[in-house]
Amino acid sequence: MSRNKWIILVLVLVLGVVALSACSQPTPEVVEKVVEKTVVVTQVVEKEVEKTVVVTEVVEKEVTPTPPPEPVTLRAYSTTDIPSLDPQIAEDVVSINAIETLFVHLTNYDLETAEIVPETATSWDISDDGLTYTFHLRTDIPWVKHNPVTGETTQEMDDDGNPRFVTANDFVYGIKRACDPNLGSYYSSVIAPLIVGCNEVLGAEDPDNIPQELIDAIGVEAPDDATLVIHLNFPASYFMSMTPMWTLAAVPQWAIEANGEKWIEAGNIVTDGRFVLNEWVHGVRRTFLRNPLMPKDMYGSGNIEKIVTNVVPDTSTGYALWLNNEVESSGIPDAELQGHLEKYKDETIQVPDLAVFYFGFRETKAPFDDPRVRRAFSAAFDREKFVQEVRQGQGLPMKHFAPPGIFGAPPIDEVGVGFDPEFAQQQLADAGYPNCEGFPTVTLLGYSGQSTLNWIEFAQQQWQEHLGCSPDVIQIEQQSFRELLGATAADVPDEEAPHMWTLGWGPDYPDENNWVGDVLWCDNPGNRMKRTCNEIDDMIVKAREETDPDKRIEMYRQIEEDFFGKDGEMPFAPLYLRIAFVAQHSWLTAPRALFGGEQFYNWTIDQAAQMAAMGK
Fold first, then answer.
1. Cα separation, 185 vs 198, whole angstroms
2. Within 10 A of 128 (CB to CB), how many other CB atoms are there?
3. Which end of the chain is more exposed for a tag (fewer CB within 10 A), N or C?
4. What string of DSSP letters covers 407-469?
5. 339 lies in some domain
6. How high is the pLDDT of residue 61?
7. What is the spatial distance between Cα 502 and Cα 521, in angstroms, rounded to a whole number?
8. Residue 168 — φ and ψ, nearest 5°?
9. pLDDT of amino acid 5
10. For 324-353, what is the mean pLDDT?
11. Cα separations (Å) of 217 from 168, 221, 223, 249, 615?
């Protein structure tokens, strides 16, 4: 046999082995690419003429699959658990931020201009008399449920197997639900005065047996799936600025009725927002993931796909995480502020969130049932010194309630008493406690955290210096924010409630009614100060119903003076407008929201820079 014939035989045997091997081995799970291998064979043909033949052999290459890229992740911390994910119940910034992430609302705020922009409603009409608002809704926003175990997000189906989309009836249900006194919602009192029939249901004598006709009379209706009509009691010029509020959001009736209070838990909750709830370990951690079923044009301008928030004991712990590049942004502990600004000036921003902080007084609990005592404790607090020394410049002193930028708010230096120690001493003496002699022991409740402790200890020193009250007279306590809200609720008996407490109010919409009307009006169910109605409340009602903007401005100026002037009722002591320094890494772009919840879906992370800082 010639050499060339041996070559042919060997080639046949090799190809046969390859074929047998291919049959006996399992098919590779992942084929990265097809490789063409060229084999040159010398072949014998007739007359012993040698001819070169090119044979192409196809070989499958099995490779390890490339891992998917890590999702763009916003890593955050919180010093408190989420009090509630229920849009009709939420009343605090932690809850409202989470709800903004999980639910869409009727309208939204433009972060740059604060103008009302479409969200579920694409357009709206207002009747000539200002009493009827008709909203035209998009009908392609799905209701979804996320399975934390499988990681799947699926669209909800109705009993007939049809996919559920957000409709006008879901808004009708949510708004009527907000009028239910059994819900215990603070913000029910915010919307109830405006919407026809809502106040009647909210103030029902027998909340357990509200007649159906009373509920049916609430002024909200859905002529069809894409049309929502809301009827007002009076032509409130500020109503459109309220429509992005979470209290007016659509909610899934079937999920609420099936799960009761547990409907907001991970695995139960049905949402319609840009993110879904993947995990909620109470008091430990919560995780949100991008909703893959959301219409793409509603995703927002940001690129964040995952939000992980861990609960930590205090800001100092969170700041340590920031220093270690484990979170994107952080508050800065008072003790660290100066050194931080010297070292990390380029990674520090100022956030003026328009939140005004104050000491609340229980007006029905002695000795703060006497307005002279309340005035004394307010006027004995040096706001300027507090902002400079304790807040280290992070704020502006306030001696009335509504801040600049809010329609109807008076200039911050023209209304109210502010710091006046002589006036404070005289007021306390007139109340029967000269130099604080005979003054009873009182409680001051602050929310937990070192910064709040610094605040209330400063107050102790101020009242000792300017009123003569020993620090032993002012007993300091601290609780979590959620516990403090519960301890100061209007329905807590006086004997169980603190005499004073720390609290703040951030704007929900840019109108003075959101301040004096939604916080201080005596008929609010959330009337923590337990105010008794008087002529100031009559003016609050007139001011919100007035259509002339100039008259409204003048009325609100008078209301603020009646509350915080030298003869004012002083239901609480306004102290400062917060302007916080925030440590923020350069790879995060985070346009902040002045009203409502933070729009995380409009935040952006430079993931390459983030990963590099993490050593990845």
1. 13
2. 7
3. N
4. BTPPPTTTSS--S-HHHHHHHHHHTT-GGGTTPPPEEEEEESSHHHHHHHHHHHHHHHHHH--
5. no
6. 60
7. 19
8. -60, -35
9. 38
10. 93
11. 17, 10, 15, 19, 61
Q: How confident is the model at residue 54 (pLDDT cuts 50, 70, 90)?
A: low
> pLDDT per residue over 341-400, tens digit each?
999 999 999 988 899 999 999 999 999 999 999 999 999 999 999 999 999 899 999 999
Q: What mean pLDDT value characterizes the chain?
A: 90
Res. 8 pLDDT band, cuts 50 70 90? very low
Query: Helix, strand or coil for residue 102?
Result: helix
**Could you report the per-residue pLDDT of 417-439, keeping only the tens digit for each?**
999 999 999 999 999 999 999 99
The answer to whether residue 341 sits within a structural domain is: no
d(CA 466, CA 436): 10
Residues 249/255/257/263 CA torsion (nearest 10 deg): -80
Write the CA distances from 212 to 188, 202, 208, 273, integer angstroms.
Answer: 19, 13, 12, 31
CATH of the domain at 484: 3.10.105.10
- Please name the residue ranges forming H helices in 132-191: 168-178, 188-191
Q: What is the mean pLDDT of residues 299-321?
A: 96
Which pair of structure tokens corresponds to residue 292? 């893959």
Place of tokens 């009123």: 467
DSSP tag of 227: E
Which DSSP category does 389 fall into? I
Q: Do both 271 and 353 map to the same domain?
A: no
Residues 20 and 88 reside in one and the same domain: no
Query: What amino acid occupies position 249?
Result: A
Are the CB atoms for 66 and 80 separated by under 8 Å?
no
